[in-house]
Amino acid sequence: MAPIPITIVTGFLGSGKSTLILNLIPQLPHTYKLALLKNEFGDVAIDSQLASSAAISGVQELLNGCICCNLVGQLGDALESLRKDVAPDRIIIETSGSAFPATLAMEVNRLGRETGNYVLDGVVVVIDVENWKGYEDTSYTAKMQQQYTDLIVFNKWELVDERNYEDCLDRVGDLGLQIANVKSDKGRVDQSVLLGLDSALAKDGDSVHGGYSKDKKPHEHPADHQTEVEVLSVNLVSEGDTPKSVDLDSLETFLLSAPKDEVYRIKALVSASHPLASSNGDLDDSVGSHEGIATYILNWAFGRWTFTYSNTTLPAPLKVASSAVDTSVSAKHETILRMTIVLARGEAAKWKARIEKGGMIEQEGEGGFLIVDRLV
Q1: CB 183 within 8 A of CB 221
Q2: Which residues pair with 181 in a beta bridge?
Q3: Full-prediction pTM beyond 0.70?
Q4: Contact residues for 306 (Cβ-Cβ < 8 A; gap 6+)
Q5: Which of 68, 117, 229, 342 has the fewest other C-beta atoms within 10 Å?
Q6: Cα 279 to Cα 282: distance, rounded to the nearest angstrom
């Protein structure tokens, strides 16, 4: 079985972590099984909502200590309990602001290597912009959190004026780090940014594109709320009757070339003749029995990626013409890659042009054509 993805959400008490998770739940498929591991005394009302939510399949609590210090030895037992009792599609670890994400992330990675049951999908830090100045007394912890995070979510920015928000951005900039960041919409961030693609989401074909389409958006933003990310849809379509594979050498070059401050997530269903090693060098050990061309799930997040076998069938080609190649889709055409790329604001046009230029996403051998569209 594919390892269970783990998302770590951290931030100081009251920053809005639980609200972020509550706003994530309605964006997930109804059959999606989400488990929560908490290490914090939080808002009782919000925590009770999380515990009672039908979409939360299981909750474990590690209290009376910091999860990255004296409780780190209990993490494996807590995760194993959730894995056996709940069999979740994903586990979210919500931890207190005093926790050190690097230690926690390294422990998750260690457990993943030793058991093969888990994989770290990302570390998200939630910052309360309204009370940012209150962090100055614990600036060391705040800096350490951000140095070992993948995504910063600026929360409650609507409650301050532009000057205070810019002050918060400047203090983050003082760290000298290029970190992906977005502003929440009253505690909400699109799941396409927070979560990578896993086997459960891949079953819902719409989830590969994060619920985006040219005619539908997963969430209607107010007119004065500018979209925090831009999204590209990439489809690689083969021609002919015989199954074709994506060129994995070109694909790996593309994954290695994507800067973390420009490209936030890459999610794809990929038809391939053999597995691609994950960014840590590991191969999915379940692929040995899958000979010939098979479908794999590619999940790239903040410079790391996994490539795992999936029994999901790629959807039929979209009946549109590529903006790069004017061609019609017929019954002899087959989708061999369906990808979503979530980018920082202002990056979509540049990356669309790069991909359409060729050399990044190609069919193995000759033939095939790309359909690249901007969704957001």
Answers
A1: no
A2: 152
A3: yes
A4: 3, 119, 278, 279, 284, 297, 298, 299
A5: 117
A6: 7
